[in-house]
Amino acid sequence: MRGCQCEGGASPIVGQGPRELASGRLAFERGLPGLCSVSGLLCDVYIAEALLLGRGLSFSSHAAVIAAFGKEFAKTGLLDARFHRYLLDAQDFRNLGDYGIGQPVTAKQARQVFRWAAEFLEVAERHLSAGQGK
Description:
Elements: H1 16-29, H2 33-53, H3 62-74, H4 82-99, H5 107-129
Helix pairs in contact: 1-2, 1-5, 2-3, 2-4, 2-5, 3-4, 4-5
């Protein structure tokens, strides 16, 4: 959301989403798929937060952001419901990557989370720049 301004002049994520994508790319290139998946989730959460801020909503946990995004954007059809699924799945991979719960994140899974984040960022930027924050 590079410099995107939402209603009321709020600058929602000040480059955090793209920065997390860059971090994820570096982690992947260095053979750290778990860390890449963490960056992918953070990117997704920053994007969802920016979209929610555009509607005047703010939340203090990843879980709350993910749930609110589902309610406000997926269930209403404002954005494709697959982005909510991306958030949910990225959270699962983040748990694997960050906490080592279950099997480690594979390179294939990390690449997928990274692709989801890049796609979500592109769609959200278009959505916000078209003035569809509400």
